[in-house]
Structure formats: structure tokens, C-alpha cells
Automatic annotation (TrEMBL):
PROSITE patterns linked to this entry: HTH_LYSR
PANTHER family, per database record: HTH-TYPE TRANSCRIPTIONAL REGULATOR CYNR, TRANSCRIPTIONAL DUAL REGULATOR HCAR-RELATED
Species the sequence originates in: Turicibacter faecis
Protein name (database record): LysR family transcriptional regulator
Keywords from the UniProt entry: DNA-binding, Transcription, Transcription regulation
Keyword Transcription regulation: yes
InterPro entries assigned to the protein according to its UniProt record, in alphabetical order: LysR_HTH_N, LysR_subst-bd, WH-like_DNA-bd_sf, WH_DNA-bd_sf
The HTH lysR-type domain, residue ranges: 1-58
TM stretches of this protein: none
Family of the protein in this entry: Belongs to the LysR transcriptional regulatory family.
Length: 290
């Protein structure tokens, strides 16, 4: 059933005059007459009857008008609510990201993006499985993660790649090396984040991948404390992008044979994004190309 025809019917039912109704609807009178005729044919009953130069509703028309007005009013209300919802979400980008990302990565992306846009982010940091669940339920517009589960519903794009580096004191015997292997580090004390943190699990996985036992470790939660201990040559540590951590008394050496860590932009296929989220996604994709 044609929605326009229902609106034409409602206007004609109130005005009971074809010329006035056609003018109100900004259509020609023959177009209005044809629309009403098609509607009556579809319903199999007359909706209007002539009364001099005017028309009036038949009893079938009066019965039908009640439901048409309810239906059109509900559609109008739904349209209004949808616009209100779009307005409320426009200007807000709901971004999820995982804890294993290089610490400055997401903030720097946001800083560059917000330098040219007046928009707002809501941020949520969690593990990848929780982020995917939130993405599918609509709690996130898009997510940035270091792993991607096999899922045909997801679109993924690599945003960045980081290599693992050994952090050590500038006075350490290995400080002059251009690269180093995990095999050579078995006698070292490793200062790592606490057990069960994403960073700790990722670092221990490096040793598992090369079939090496995990050396002696000291678990420290604060990054600043770790750097101070490394600078004192009390132990060594492992980091991804070491640039923000480097000091005159700390060196970073690439670790040979370890798989790099990648950051992925993840969205749902055929997802309808708000204008703001679409703008940020396009920015991320453009950043990847440049």
C-alpha cells in the first residue's frame, strides 16, 4: 500500500474537495483522483461518494480513516524520534580499544583528529572479546584492537605495526648491540607488568613462541618504577614502541625473531555509522594510507 496515497486520502477526507486537497498536497487534481482510485481498487471498496461539487466519505471511508490517521501519526512520531536519536548520537564517537596497544597510540590519533573537528569521544578499554560483543550490540561505533577473532561479520584494517624492543641501562653490556635475541637473555632479570595483565601475557607469549623458558622476573605495576630500575641496571624490560620511554640512561634494542604487534581498526560489515563515527573511520583509513 502506497504511503503517499494514504496521506492523500487523509487530506481529501478532511477537506472533502478535490481541488483544495490537490492544492494542499501540491499535486495535480488528476494525480489525486488517480491515487484515490488506485487506493479504492486495492481495498475493493469505495471510500468517497459525490455530493454536488464536493465529495464525502462513505461509511467505509470513515471506518478506514481512523486507522489511517493512527498509522500516519505513528510513522510521523517514529520519524521525529529517529531524528532526535540521530541528533543525540551525532557529535559523539563511541570508541573501544584494548590495553595492549602502545600507550600513546589512541590518544595521539584523537589529538590529531580533534585538531580539525569539534566532536566528543566516549572511551572504553577492555579485552578484545568484550570489545567485539559491545561492537555487535551497538555500544561501540568502532574498536581498535591488537587481535581479530575469525568472524565473517567483521571488517578489519591494519592501522599500525610495532616491533618488540629490549629496554636496558645505557651501562649494560648489551647496550651497544644493534639487535638481540631472547635466547641471549635467559640469564637476565626481567622487570614485567603484573601477571594476568595484557602486557605480561603478551611478553611471556614471546618466549613460548620460541620454545624458551621464561627467565627470572620481577613484577612492577608502575611504568615509572620499571624505568628507574632499568636505568639502575637492576634488570631489563620489554616494550613495543619504546620512543616515549627512552631517556639518556636507557637504551632500546630490537629483539630478533619476535612477531610484531599490529593494531587493527574493527567495524561491522554493512554497519550504519553516525556521521561523526564515519568521519573518524575515514580519518583512520586515510591515516593508514599516508
Amino acid at each position: 500500500m502506497n504511503l503517499n496515497h494514504l496521506e492523500y486520502f487523509r487530506v481529501l477526507a478532511h477537506l472533502e474537495h478535490y481541488t483544495q486537497a490537490a492544492k494542499e498536497l501540491s499535486i495535480t487534481q488528476p494525480s489525486l483522483s488517480h491515487a484515490i482510485s488506485m487506493l479504492e481498487k486495492e481495498l475493493g471498496t469505495p471510500l468517497f461518494e459525490k455530493q454536488g461539487r464536493n465529495v464525502r466519505l462513505t461509511r467505509y471511508g470513515r471506518f478506514f480513516l481512523t486507522y489511517v490517521e493512527q498509522a500516519l501519526d505513528e510513522i510521523k512520531l517514529g520519524e521525529q524520534k529517529l531524528k532526535e536519536f540521530s541528533y543525540q548520537t551525532d557529535g559523539i564517537i563511541r570508541l573501544g580499544f584494548d590495553a595492549l596497544l602502545e600507550p600513546t597510540f589512541v590518544p595521539k590519533l584523537m589529538q590529531t583528529f580533534l585538531s580539525e573537528q569539534v566532536l566528543t569521544f566516549t572511551l572504553k578499554q577492555s579485552d578484545t572479546h568484550a570489545l567485539i560483543d559491545h561492537l555487535k550490540t551497538g555500544a561501540h561505533d568502532l574498536i581498535i584492537s591488537t587481535s581479530v577473532p575469525l568472524d565473517h561479520e567483521l571488517d578489519t584494517t591494519t592501522l599500525a605495526t610495532w616491533k618488540w624492543h629490549l629496554l636496558l641501562s645505557s651501562t649494560h653490556p648489551f647496550a651497544h648491540r644493534s639487535d638481540i635475541s631472547l635466547q641471549e637473555l635467559q640469564e637476565q632479570l626481567f622487570i614485567l607488568p603484573p601477571t594476568q595483565t595484557p602486557e605480561h601475557l603478551a611478553i611471556t607469549q614471546l618466549f613460548v613462541q620460541q620454545h624458551l623458558p621464561l627467565p627470572n622476573t620481577l613484577e612492577i605495576a608502575q611504568k615509572e618504577t620499571t624505568l628507574e630500575l632499568v636505568a639502575l641496571n637492576y634488570g631489563v624490560s620489554i616494550a613495543l614502541n619504546p620512543t616515549p620511554l627512552l631517556r639518556q640512561d636507557i637504551q632500546a634494542i630490537p629483539i630478533k625473531g619476535t612477531l610484531p604487534l599490529e593494531a587493527y581498526l574493527i567495524t561491522l560489515k554493512n554497519q550504519s555509522l553516525t556521521p561523526s563515527a564515519r568521519l573518524f573511520k575515514d580519518f583512520l583509513l586515510q591515516t593508514t594510507k599516508s
